[in-house]
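Fig. S4 source data, part A: sequence.
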Amino acid sequence: MREKKLIIFIDSGDTLVDESTEYRKEGSEVVERALLIPGAKQALLALKEKGFVLEMVADGLTASFDNVYRQNGLEDIFTERTISEEVGAEKPAVEMFRTAMEKLGLGEADKGRIIMVGNNLKKDIAGANRFGITSVLMAWSPRYCMVPENEEQTPDYRIRNPLQLVELAERLEREQKEPMPHIMIEPYREQYWQELCAIHDAARKMELAHACLEDAFLPLEIAAEREGLLDYAHIDIALFDQCVAGFCAYSDEELAWLYVLPQFMRKGIGRALVSHALETEPHLNYVEVLFGNEPARGLYESFGFRTKEIISGVMPGNEVFHVRVYAMYRES
């Protein structure tokens, strides 16, 4: 069977394994045995037979997973396993997803063909969305909330049982072979000013909501002058299928502005803008992210930026508001 293009990262507890059936010896954290949820074994075997690459990406103990999958005759079902005990971090940490990619020899360009399947909105779905891969919610568990609290917890797809994953995977595999809308990055020109205003004003409101600063909103017509948007050495726009969908502004060291129209979010546009900025200015190594804006922080972490400190001060251009920002640095 020819290997498929689509890569499936998948959680374990209440995604494949029924957590209510887990048995541990007294005083031990290791799961000795557990049952799979209905349809899980059939789904995994079908996906494997069809040529899909399966990698477990799960929080827990290696010994627990060894016991459970061996007991259920699935010890060889995964091409690789990324387990929090071995990584030293738990989802939604970017380290879990980056390690999973590295184990399969995947790079940044492969993110568009990876899906993460899990039952936990705060760990699996938010983690995948921040990292820039497709998120699939397994909405089977009666033990977890299945209602997203915010945009970053909103899955790209939702299934109710493991067997539905087979159908979804085949559909997404077919879509992998279809031409995707092309993202073009080009320098800003004055003719795009109204599009920039629309992008900023819609996306800025979402950004401020993450930081609980909705009242601090200023339209771009005001903010651009106060914050010197047009003074930056580089202002780029992103064209998605011929529509102006996002923009960024940056100097040789700092990425200062990055906004994408909400209806075009999670289509790789922000990622394309950041990639182009880093190619244009290889020494660009600093960005500030409003405290609480975890989707943006996750995006920058996927490019190697790390939070060094949290800075308190006043909001540039609207100094009556006090803010905290993640100061993120990247080795160039």
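Fig. S4 source data, part B ends here. The first helix runs from residue 40 to 49.
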